[in-house]
């Protein structure tokens, strides 16, 4: 087990946003989190990253309650890229990516070769090496998104949590990002809206509906015509893909 959600319930005021959520992300797998708008994906990811406290239940990181682990230790292994991540200061791209090394440094340690290597690799992997000296404010939305993901990779995480990371990206960068994440030796939990992308890249999928888990399984088990109709309110034809192991969804009018 890598990250586990154990009977999590989370409320805002009297509204129950997440109810009795239990699942586990296995080491090394890419776990897709799907669900209609407002179903609770972002809320769940923030709880998994330890940024919010559940009203009941708990998040376990390798069998330990995340709330009982120091923030620094959590930050050394869990990286979270939020949906609307921003960087206010007018930093250069490489300075933003270097921030990912912060949890690994102490007051006394200088900038090490390991830090340099992690930053270089992250910039390369996200296709941002050529933009390393650009000012943050001068980047396009998609480039900012890739720089944030590079910062998360520079953190050398074992668990990578991403909230709709393909927003703002053109199709080439959407595919290359998902391919990159699928190939990383990390456990990833990734909220996505594109169901065909989830089918192509995710090892398993969890579907949220009104704050509850509606389905949990492999893409082929989960992405059925019935589920698409009942949870997403769309008609679709689903068949095995000729090009990958998952299903292919064709939406019908
Ligand atoms: N700070 C808040 N105050 C009030 N309601 C909130 C707050 N944050 C989330 N909610 C509500 O909780 C529910 C779940 O929101 P959440 O953002 O987790 O959904 P989501 O599945 O990520 O949605 P989307 O696909 O639109 O990004 C929604 O009904 C939302 O209105």
Give an overview of the whole structure.
- The protein is α/β, with parallel strands linked by helices and about 250 residues long.
- Helix content is about 30%, strand content about 30%.
- The chain is built from 9 helices and 12 strands.
- The strands form 3 sheets. It has a 6-stranded mixed beta sheet with strand order 6-7-8-3-9-10, sandwiched between helices. A 4-stranded antiparallel beta sheet has the order 2-1-4-5, covered by helices on one side. The protein has a two-stranded antiparallel ribbon with strand order 11-12.
- Strand 9 and strand 10 (about 210-215) form a beta hairpin.
- The termini are far apart.
- The model has no long low-confidence stretch (mean pLDDT about 95).
- The protein binds adenosine-5'-triphosphate.
- Adenosine-5'-triphosphate binds near residues 17, 37, 38, 40 and 43.
- This is ABC transporter ATP-binding protein.
- InterPro entries: AAA+_ATPase (IPR003593), ABC_transporter-like_ATP-bd (IPR003439), P-loop_NTPase (IPR027417).
- One of its GO terms (molecular function) is ATP binding.
Structural class: alpha/beta
Question: Uncertain spans, ≥5 residues at pLDDT below 50?
Answer: none
Order of helices and strands: EEEHEEHEHHHEHEHEEHHEE
List the bound ligands. adenosine-5'-triphosphate
Distance between the termini: 41 Å
User: What characterizes the major β-sheet?
Assistant: 6 strands, mixed
């Amino acid at each position: 087990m890598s990250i586990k959600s154990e009977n999590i319930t989370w409320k805002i005021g009297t509204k129950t946003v997440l109810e009795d959520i239990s699942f586990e992300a296995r080491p090394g797998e890419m776990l897709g989190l799907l669900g209609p708008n407002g179903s609770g994906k972002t809320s769940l990811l923030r709880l998994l990253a330890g940024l919010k406290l559940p009203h009941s239940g708990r998040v376990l990181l390798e069998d330990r309650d995340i709330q009982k682990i120091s923030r620094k230790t959590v930050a050394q292994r869990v990286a979270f890229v939020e949906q609307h991540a921003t960087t206010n200061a007018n930093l250069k791209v490489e300075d933003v990516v270097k921030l990912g090394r912060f949890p690994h440094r102490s007051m006394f340690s200088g900038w090490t070769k390991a830090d340099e290597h992690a930053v270089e690799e992250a910039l390369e992997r996200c296709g941002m090496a050529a933009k390393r000296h650009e000012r943050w404010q001068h980047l396009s939305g998609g480039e900012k998104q890739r720089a944030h993901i590079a910062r998360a990779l520079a953190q050398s995480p074992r668990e990578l949590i991403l909230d709709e990371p393909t927003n703002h990206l053109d199709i080439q960068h959407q595919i290359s990002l998902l391919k990159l994440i699928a190939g990383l030796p990390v456990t990833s939990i990734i909220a996505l809206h594109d169901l065909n992308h989830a089918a192509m890249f995710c090892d398993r999928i969890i579907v949220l509906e009104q704050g509850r888990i509606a389905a949990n399984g492999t893409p082929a088990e989960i992405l059925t015509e019935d589920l698409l109709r009942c949870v997403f309110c769309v008609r679709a034809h689903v068949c095995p893909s000729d090009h990958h192991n998952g299903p292919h969804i064709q939406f019908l009018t």
